[in-house]
Each structure stands twice: as C-alpha cells, then as structure tokens.
Hints:
It contains 14 helices and 5 strands. It has helices at residues 2-20, 26-29, 39-63, 83-90, 95-134, 138-151, 160-184, 201-204, 222-226, 260-265, 285-294, 297-307, 312-323, 338-347, and strands spanning 188-192, 216-218, 239-243, 327-328, 352-353. Helix 1 packs across helix 5 (95-134), helix 1 (2-20) runs antiparallel to helix 6 and helix 5 packs across helix 11. The longest helix is centred in the N-terminal third of the chain and has 40 residues, at 95-134. The chain is elongated and about 70 Å long.
Amino acid sequence: MAEKAIRPHLETVLNAYLESVKNADKAALEKPFTIENDAEFVHNVEQLIASSYMLGIYHADEETGKNVNAADTDIPPIPFTEAVNFLKEKVPMTKEAWSSLEPKIRFRAFTVAKLGSAKTIDVARQQLIGALEDGSGYAETWQRIKDTLQDEAKSLTPGYWENVFRTNTQSAYIAGKLEQYEKNGVAAYQLMVIDDDRTSKICRNLLNNATGYGLILPVNHQFWKTYGFPPYHYQCRTSISGLKKSQLGKDGNNVDNISMNELRRRKFKPIDGFGGNPNFWGITNSQIEQAEMYGIKEEIVEKIKITIPEEYKDFNFIKEIKENDLFDFLEDYNKASKVARDFIFKYGKQMNMDCYINGRG
C-alpha cells in the first residue's frame, strides 16, 4: 500500500512545489507553500489505519485464552484494497461505534498525509536554500531534485515514510487489541518482545532476564499508567498479548513482580511521543510543533474543529496550559491534578501540574 500510495502523491506535491520556486530567491523560498489536499492519498492512509485497528480487534479475540509467540504478534503487512470490508465482516462493531470512530481515523489520515508532505517539501526547500547560501548552483540543485522524482521521490527523506506508516499502523493495531482485551476481561498483559539482532535497547529492557520472554504484568500495574503501551520507538515491533486469570501460573505464564524502581534502574524509557495509552487518531505536542514549523498548524486545527468537534475543547485545553507554561511533562502520573489526570488518561500523557489551572485544578 505504502509504495503505491506514496509515489504518485509525492510526485504531484513536489512537482507543484518545484515549479513554484523554479526562479525563486531566498525570501520566496522561506514563505509557506500551500499543499493541495490529495483526497485519494488521505483515503488510502485512512484505509490502512482502519484496517490495522480492526485487525488488532480481530487478533485479540482470536488470541485471548491461548499461548502465542512474540513473532506471531508483529503486525503483518496489510493488503488494504479490500481489507476494511473484509474485517468489518469479521469484527463485531455496531454501526454507531463505526460512525464514532470513522471521523477520528479520517482526521489521523489527514494529519499523516499533511505533515508527511510538508516534511518532504521542507527537505527540498532546505536543499535549495543551501544552494543559494553556499553558491553551489541553484538551477543545478533544482534540477537534481526534479530528476529525483523520476527515480524515487521519497528518497529525499530516507526511512521517513516507512517510520510514519509503521508507527501509525502499530498504534492503531495495539489500540484495537486493547479494546478487545478489555471486553474479554483479561487479567494481565504480556509484552511480546521479539528478541533478535534487531531488538532495540529500549525493548530489550522489557525482557524477563531469567526466561528471556517479555514481562507479564497485571492490568493494574503502574507500568501501564507510567509508560503505556507499544510502540515505544520508531520501527518498534513489540506488541502485547492478553492473559486470562485462568492462564496465569500455567505454561510459564508467571506474573512478574517487577518494581517501578527496577524498571527505572534498567533505564527503560520510550522515545518522546511514544508509549502512553494508544490514541492512534490524536495529535501529539511534537506534531503540533511540526505543523507550526511548516506553517500548516491552523489548517490542522481547523480540521479538528470540522472532523471531530467534540475533541476540540480538549485540544484548546492542552494548548492553553502549554502556552502559559503551567506544567512540565513528568513520569509521575499521580501528582497531576484531577483535570490533568483525566486528560492524561485519555491522551496517554504524563504531566505534573505546578499550580491550579484557571481555577480548574
């Protein structure tokens, strides 16, 4: 899906940008470029995220009560062409539930497409500005970027789109699994860490040192509130598996009594923007900052208002307290005010309130 969807979209966007700056000066280059919305690309991304989410629900329902291997929990490639319709038949979801979910997935797809396009254009812009500043030849640099489109447009940002799609599909997949596990009434989650030469230091810290398998932690363990659920970093392959109470203590499914202090001693910490409670459709602070840097923040905010208006008040709240510098992001969830805790729980953030927020603390 990714290859087929990305290439024509980036070719169109970058060609439009390059033609607009063919004879530009530095001042013109630094002005924001209006990216035309590509409805087909957004739709394709939307289908991918929706498929991942429903596949998570489907797999969680199949896995509950069974022993599974870590390698089997890595999200598989999704042939999205007919995946959504197929999974809708397999996944028990009411029309009302889908109607509530669909606009959130659509907003996420719009954000992914818009930020990704802006990122690619920004890379091209910086190369052109560099050519002007160091005298290496603007026309030659412009032509080199243009020629790149004939080969592979996404090579301007190597690895970026793979990370984008992997992160978004994994987040949606885990969110789907969690929703179904909660319905099935599991007692513990096992972190399904694939242990091989590609395993990150971050996820290797989640292995039981005695067994070599991922940690098994009760659903009410502080770990889930403090660090949340995968993905924990770019290209993360760690997943989760839900265990029923009847499975615990059998077939090696022993609950790990690991303390938070031990986890800190292991120096486990997700990369900023990862972990938390999977909110696969929301927008993070780092994405807001990126949108501002690329000059597309207002467009994304407007999309929130139109697509998911019931969430707009929460977006304004986080923006308001951030601009007033009234909080720091910390790991200690319990020190936060009730208002902030409710917001954290919903959006997977950890913050410490240093004072009352406009009388709402």
